[in-house]
Design a protein that fits this description.
This protein is of the alpha+beta class. Helix content is 19%, strand content 31%. The strands form seven sheets. Strands 6, 7, 8, 9, 11, 12, 14, 15, 19 and 20 form a ten-stranded antiparallel β-sheet that branches. An eight-stranded parallel β-barrel has the order 21-22-23-26-27-28-29-30, surrounded by six helices. Strands 5, 10, 13, 16, 17 and 18 form a six-stranded antiparallel β-sheet that branches. The chain starts with a strand and ends with a strand. Bound molecules: (2R,3S,4R,5S)-2-(hydroxymethyl)piperidine-3,4,5-triol. The site of (2R,3S,4R,5S)-2-(hydroxymethyl)piperidine-3,4,5-triol has 11 residues, from loops.
Amino acid sequence: MNIIFNEVTKEFHLSNKNISYIFKVLKNGQLGHLYFGKTIRHREDFSSLYYEDLIGCITCPVENDVKFSLDYTKQEFPTFGGTNFTEGAFEIFLPNGSYVTEFKYKSHVIYKGKNKINNGEIPSTYSNDDVTTLEVTLYDDLIKTEITLFYSVFENSSIVARRAKISSDFEEALNIEKLMSCSLDLDGINYELLELTGNWINERNVEKTNVIKGKHSIYSLRGISSHQFNPFFALGKGKIDEFNGDTYGFSLVYSGNFLADVEATEYQLTRVSMGINPFKFKVILNKGESFETPEVLIGYSPKGLNGLSQNYHNLFKANLMKSFDNFKLPPIVINNWEATYFDFNEEKLLKLATKAKEAGIETFVLDDGWFLNRNNDKTSLGDWEVDKSKLPNGLDGLCSKINDMGLNFGLWIEPEMISVESDLYRKHSDWVVSTPNRQVSHGRNQYVLDFTRKEVVQYIYESISKVLSSCNITYVKWDMNRAITESFSTNLENQGLFYHNYILGVYELYEKLTTKFPNIMFEGCASGGGRFDPAMLYYSPQIWTSDNTDAVERLKIQWGTSIVYPLRAISNHVSAVPNHQVLRNTPLVTRGNTAYFGAFGYELDLNETKEDIELVKKQVEFYKKHRELIIDGDFYRIVSPFDNDRNMCVWQVVSKDKKKSIVGAYKVLAKANDFKKNIKLVGLDNNLEYKIEGYERTFFGDELLNIGVPITKVFTGANGFVLSENKDEIENSGIFGIGDYSSQIFVLESI
Ligand code: DGJ
């Protein structure tokens, strides 16, 4: 891990054993980008990476120099106004209404470690003695303003963290209407772009498109990172492939409104920028003030998308998820939401808990509906006091009984919300986010609390702290069920900071609660996966992936989520059939086989359903036995549910020493006589000999990597099963291809 500055050529070379990132001070003092990719040897002069030519019809910033133009030059932090004709990474309005700036290289520092953003106001990756940071300061004389660009290189990663800060010493206020975290210019425009899109119960679908001239944006304007676009995208040279090719990733550590632009220019450059969404955003920067952006994690992999994903997974676990070590192994939960919805009482919950305990489940999570009069979603948000008509012995009484059974106790909260039908609203209707003299839109019958106001965050902190101190809670599910509308705060002079300050309020509450209750594991949630982003993972090691619990739908959702996020973060529950979101009947075995790849649990009434409790016990045992491997191992996506008409999905987790592995193989629809297909594995050691559970013979790594696991138990329609006899038993037999939605798990261990 090395950062070198060449005084003569004014070139910076950031590198480690995986990557090189090179840029330089241009002749007009701005920063020009030279290279980002696989490590290259250091040279005293990288001028061969710099390009200038006599190009027709360009404008030039340097007197008597007819070649140099920002129009076609790769840059680090471009801006509009001079010879650059894209929108650029920042926009500053001066008091006279002008917006032309001249930020020139002033100084730089290189140091070990990595500072927090605004003293921790915005979550970010941290150093474990494995980071070196470069800060480059650019200065505009006329407005006495600095822009500092931060670059952090991690020792064992192919990821560079980038962010920006602006500080003014100008007498008058400056209006900052855009300040992206980073901009990066990649050579060529022959890229495929991958984004994760969707909506409620349909999150993080993989969509790919060829980059063509012009601009493509992904963004959120909902106040949360959103179900619609995850704050991530990847670019693959040529085509994106899971295993091959130069692949770049961009992941923003932020949970509010964001924007990512990918723009292919006529000069054969692909310009990328990412950060806080500039739409409706404004910072009024007075003398002596500064503003810092969140960070973007820019990744590179020469080994396709899987390589990129593993980089993010490893970095998130080691340098982002601050409670990862504390809560490394996810507890197996039973959550009562789909089992009871709002209709429960203590007796019903205890019955559910008893059965869960019998199955070996470890934590009982009480979802929505436990507080004052909350019998449907129309009331009570904001009143965080237990409803004694449902729970006469209080939370404490219920929790003690659950604990006495040997189960831990978890609780649902939705701290950012308020219902009109609540004591809090009767006292503080002014705390609702709304625009004066305008209607206020509702969402799920509820309203958003103004978290830009310190006193609101403090009040909620105190009331939630009271609940969390009231009994032995080890797990909190923090929900957030609507987008923000009519944004405005009476507390803010500058409404351009509303969305940003809102999310800072959320971070503040997370920081306070996780600090006060270090032994409680927080699970993030926003109507399922509406706020599944790296900043949330800083506080909560897992996030409820989606309100869609159907095993088939989950193949896609979990696949898409795994492109950025580690399995530790992906919270999955086995639920009842017919499934509540799509009314599909899938075998219990497949529901388990899908949910294993993440933080595993159940969300159904084990007393009421026809589920085979013996099979549930086996699943729980399986997860307990293998969860360490699932969490610590390298995850590989092999056969995509997006690419083959949804009929197959295969993924695999391999221990770091390659001695153990688990493969999940799923066949969505049965196909007649779809005989004998080997499943080629990945990530194993060529020379190790593996035993696969259920197989007599052993296999060498090279056989499994090049030929695959032979599927021996395939239903061909002619092998003697009488389907009418016991359909459930047959469906759950684990025979691949029998009936719709079959699946198989392979457990490998080297001998
Ligand atoms: C939305 C969440 O995603 C669900 O899991 C559940 O907690 C409900 N909210 C409760 O209102």
